[in-house]
User: Fold YdcH family protein from Crenobacter oryzisoli.
Amino acid sequence: MFPEYSELIARLRQEDPQFGQLFDQHCALDERIRNMEERIELASSMEIEVLKKEKLHLKDMLYFRLKSVAPH
Assistant:
């Protein structure tokens, strides 16, 4: 996710607990969705879509934070 910000992400994960928490939540949702899609965890397509929307919201929040602190 956001390879152009990989160094900034690493720094923020260490320095900003809120950013780190959002990042970890996004990664956990990503893994859960993958498991659901691979049928490891049974779920309806509606449940998966809800989780995907939540994951996208987290991604938007992370991107906004990255853009606000990235050098221009």
